[in-house]
């Protein structure tokens, strides 16, 4: 791999690190501010989380379509990332959870433009034989940052929301600048749309089936997404905000670290078998997390994150081979975000159902995902190895 391309890819990996620190610091800060200061219900907290992913779903497709117009427009992704620095400064000015939802919509729109473009560039710029592993490293650096971002939150609680958002803003600006330089270096490798030819590169798995599995998996693992996770774990296990953030950070980090080996197996062995494995893990995760003990809650969250983080690089590798790769990768981001919105709202609505008490205490909101879990297992079983 030539030096220019290698430096560009390394810079994009670094951008995943710096951008995720900003996002992960902001997430628990906004979650507990909305719940404790603004006195929002769990349904309202779900709306805060899911308004972000809903906006991100629509702008992900928009970003893919925009990029097909001309690869120079990839720089818009970096500018959108820096726009987050301004958006997060609005959170301390809010006085109701509805205002938080509005800002979250703006954040989601900006993130939907920026992150899928970065994922597309790193996928198409990397040689096919190592694509899943390099993409996994990209997501892994995001998980390291997620862990550190949770620690940053825990150690800056006394600064208040305003102080924490200034730190997040600095990281968003830095991330945008790194992206700009990376896109400049990788510009010759960016091919948003190719002619469909009989002898061209083709996806190893059916893209429609990959999108279906992505959708079902995102619905199921939505309980690990955003603000609702922090509030659920803190309230279910009765632990402090700071400890919740740190424990969830470590859970995400370990799941991402192990997911690299799944990506390696997808590169050198069978993508279909790895997708089947991740589908099974995601399917059982909410059932385990529904059992209100610390080991089962965290193991359920771990399995959900492990499955999702293992599946992401495989799906990007498959879709990067599609002749309209930028739209395909934007599309899978959109599908996953829309499905996460559905799953998050299901969790928020079902949270009021309470619990079942017998030998074990079971959360009914998480058991509501059972039909989707069954569907995911069946869909994964249909893949041809």
UniProtKB/TrEMBL annotation:
Membrane topology listed for this record: Multi-pass membrane protein
Organism: Thermococcus eurythermalis
A molecular function GO annotation: transmembrane transporter activity
Chief location bin: membrane
Bilayer-spanning residue ranges: 42-66, 73-93, 105-124, 136-154, 166-186, 245-262, 297-315, 327-353, 359-378
InterPro entries: MFS (IPR011701), MFS_trans_sf (IPR036259), MFS_Transporters (IPR050171)
PANTHER family in the cross-refs: INTEGRAL MEMBRANE TRANSPORT PROTEIN, RESISTANCE PROTEIN MDTM, PUTATIVE-RELATED-RELATED
Compartments, as annotated in UniProt: Cell membrane
CC per GO annotation: plasma membrane
Coiled-coil segments: none
Alphabetical list of Pfam families matching this protein: MFS_1 (PF07690)
Record-given protein name: MFS transporter
Keywords: Cell membrane, Membrane, Transmembrane, Transmembrane helix, Transport
Lineage top rank: taxon: Archaea
């Amino acid at each position: 791999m030539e030096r220019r391309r290698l430096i560009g890819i390394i810079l994009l990996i670094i951008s995943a690190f710096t951008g995720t620190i900003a996002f992960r610091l902001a997430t628990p800060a906004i979650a507990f501010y909305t719940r404790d200061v603004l006195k929002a219900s769990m349904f309202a907290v779900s709306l805060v989380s899911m308004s972000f992913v809903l906006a991100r779903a629509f702008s992900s497709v928009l970003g893919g379509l925009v990029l097909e117009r001309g690869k120079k427009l990839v720089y818009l992704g970096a500018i959108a990332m820096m726009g987050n620095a301004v958006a997060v400064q609005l959170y301390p000015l809010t006085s109701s959870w509805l205002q938080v939802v509005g800002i979250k919509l703006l954040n989601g729109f900006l993130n939907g433009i920026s992150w899928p473009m970065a994922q597309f560039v790193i996928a198409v710029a990397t040689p096919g034989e190592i694509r899943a592993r390099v993409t996994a490293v990209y997501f892994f650096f995001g998980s390291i940052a997620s862990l550190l971002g949770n620690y940053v939150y825990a150690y800056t609680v006394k600064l208040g929301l305003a102080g924490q958002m200034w730190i997040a803003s600095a990281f968003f600006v830095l991330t945008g600048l790194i992206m700009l330089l990376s896109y400049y270096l990788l510009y010759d490798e960016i091919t948003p749309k190719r002619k469909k030819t009989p002898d061209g590169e083709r996806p190893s798995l059916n893209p429609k089936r990959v999108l279906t599995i992505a959708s079902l998996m995102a619905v199921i693992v939505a309980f690990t997404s955003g603000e609702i996770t922090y509030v659920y774990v803190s309230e279910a296990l009765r632990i402090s905000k700071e400890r919740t953030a740190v424990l969830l950070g470590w859970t995400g980090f370990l799941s991402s670290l192990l997911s690299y080996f799944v990506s390696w197996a997808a590169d050198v062995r069978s993508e279909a078998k790895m997708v089947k494995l991740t589908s099974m893990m995601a399917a059982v995760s909410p059932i385990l997390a529904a059992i209100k003990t610390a080991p089962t809650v965290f193991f359920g969250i771990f399995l959900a994150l492990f499955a999702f983080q293992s599946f992401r690089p495989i799906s990007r590798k498959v879709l990067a081979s599609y002749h309209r790769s930028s739209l395909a990768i934007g599309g899978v981001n959109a599908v996953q975000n829309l499905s996460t919105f559905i799953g998050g709202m299901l969790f928020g609505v079902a949270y009021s159902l309470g619990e079942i008490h017998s030998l074990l205490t079971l959360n009914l909101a998480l058991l509501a995902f059972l039909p989707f879990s069954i569907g995911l297992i069946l869909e994964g079983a249909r893949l041809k190895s």
